[in-house]
């Protein structure tokens, strides 16, 4: 019994040490360390009211978690969410929003309310209204959108050769109503009614691998995560470049930033993208555009944040006109997401095809 108690105490201490310190706590700790006095004369530091509440919550939470749950929570925190598949479910106690305090302790010290949070698709506790998941990596912070979002405001009309365009882009005569190559770059493929989207991976202006059909509620898109299931972009690149030809240096550098990538989830209010990587991602979607603008908007989604990227109600079938030609996207359900690198007038990259690594999400029309 004593051995098990020591084990629980060790797990609790490691979890408490792993918490994310606020700026004022860090400065206070550094100041205390720099001016430390001998133990006989040192003054006792009193915790702040916020830290006292967190200690009280910690004690109450750890008493309610069994050893397996403590290990799961510590593993998720230690790996930064890489190994965070299991829930840490508890019933609400003392504190009205235990998930908020867990996320504040181990992820976002500035978090205020539960309205800022959203369960990730992998969290099974969300289906249990009487339970709360205390795994901080089963939560994502909602991205607060500004219009336009500075400094990533608007980007100019893309000037691409037809062969370099993404699957959702093409141009044709104004009298031609046929969508050429829309929805798939493989002309003989037919959409599967069970599929709600297809994912295309791009490196600069080159498509890498085949389209990846998605017929599950959500899908993870990542580089090469040992415990990951879903679309591995690393696997797509294995047969892309010939042995004698290496990818550009910018592509090689950016591949290392994809990491856990993102999760795409089809939900009741639309399609959500969850940024699981350590770097921001940049999103362009027809349902996030300003209907009064002739250009498109690019939104920055920080690490650990989520965004509703498609509501299923775009601002009409928006098509730009240029010299008598109709210029894409001809598919109003196409969403483009760049990993770590933004594009637009505030960047040297004016077009998304200048971004080293990015994906295009081709969505079926909502039925």
UniProtKB/TrEMBL annotation:
The keyword Zinc applies. One of its GO terms (molecular function) is metal ion binding. InterPro entries: Dwarfin (IPR013790), MAD_homology1_Dwarfin-type (IPR003619), MAD_homology_MH1 (IPR013019), SMAD-like_dom_sf (IPR017855), SMAD_dom_Dwarfin-type (IPR001132), SMAD_FHA_dom_sf (IPR008984), SMAD_MH1_sf (IPR036578). Signal peptide: none annotated. Keywords: Cytoplasm, Metal-binding, Nucleus, Transcription, Transcription regulation, Zinc. Residues 27-53, 165-191 are annotated as: Disordered. Pfam families: MH1 (PF03165), MH2 (PF03166). GO terms for biological process: anatomical structure morphogenesis; cell differentiation; post-embryonic development; regulation of developmental process; regulation of multicellular organismal process; regulation of transcription by RNA polymerase II; SMAD protein signal transduction. Residues 196-367 form the MH2 domain. It is found in: Cytoplasm; Nucleus. GO terms for cellular component: cytoplasm; heteromeric SMAD protein complex. The keyword Cytoplasm applies. PANTHER family: MOTHERS AGAINST DECAPENTAPLEGIC HOMOLOG (PTHR13703:SF54), SMAD (PTHR13703). This is Mothers against decapentaplegic homolog. It comes from Sipha flava. The lineage of its organism: Eukaryota, Metazoa, Ecdysozoa, Arthropoda, Hexapoda.
């Amino acid at each position: 019994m004593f051995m098990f108690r020591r084990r629980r105490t060790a797990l609790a201490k490691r979890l408490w040490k792993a918490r994310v310190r606020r700026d004022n706590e860090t400065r206070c700790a550094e100041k205390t360390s720099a001016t430390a006095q001998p133990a006989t004369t040192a003054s006792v530091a009193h915790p702040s009211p916020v830290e006292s509440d967190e200690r009280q919550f910690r004690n109450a939470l750890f008493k309610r978690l069994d050893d397996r749950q403590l290990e799961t929570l510590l593993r998720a925190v230690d790996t930064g969410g890489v190994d965070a598949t299991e829930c840490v479910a508890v019933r609400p106690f003392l504190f009205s929003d235990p998930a908020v305090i867990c996320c504040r302790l181990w992820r976002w010290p500035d978090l205020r309310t539960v309205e800022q949070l959203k369960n990730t698709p992998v969290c099974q506790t969300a289906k249990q209204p009487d339970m709360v998941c205390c795994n901080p990596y089963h939560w994502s912070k909602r991205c607060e959108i500004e219009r336009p979002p500075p400094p990533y405001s608007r980007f100019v009309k893309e000037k691409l050769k037809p062969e370099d365009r993404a699957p959702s882009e093409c141009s044709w005569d104004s009298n031609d109503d046929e969508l050429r190559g829309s929805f798939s770059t493989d002309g003989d493929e037919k959409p599967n009614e069970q599929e709600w989207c297809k994912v295309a991976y791009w490196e600069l202006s080159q498509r890498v691998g085949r389209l990846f059909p998605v017929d599950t509620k959500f899908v993870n898109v990542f580089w090469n995560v040992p415990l990951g299931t879903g679309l591995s972009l690393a696997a797509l690149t294995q047969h892309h470049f010939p042995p004698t030809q290496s990818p550009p240096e910018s592509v090689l550098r950016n591949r290392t930033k994809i990491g856990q990538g993102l999760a795409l989830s089809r939900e009741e209010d639309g399609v959500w993208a969850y940024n699981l990587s350590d770097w921001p991602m940049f999103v362009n979607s027809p349902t996030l555009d300003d209907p009064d603008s002739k250009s498109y908007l690019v939104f920055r989604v920080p690490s650990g944040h989520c965004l509703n990227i498609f509501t299923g109600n775009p601002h009409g079938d928006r098509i730009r006109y240029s010299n008598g030609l109709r210029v894409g996207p001809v598919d109003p359900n196409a969403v483009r997401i760049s990993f770590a690198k933004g594009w637009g007038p505030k960047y040297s990259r004016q077009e998304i095809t200048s971004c080293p690594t990015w994906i295009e999400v081709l969505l079926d029309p909502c039925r």
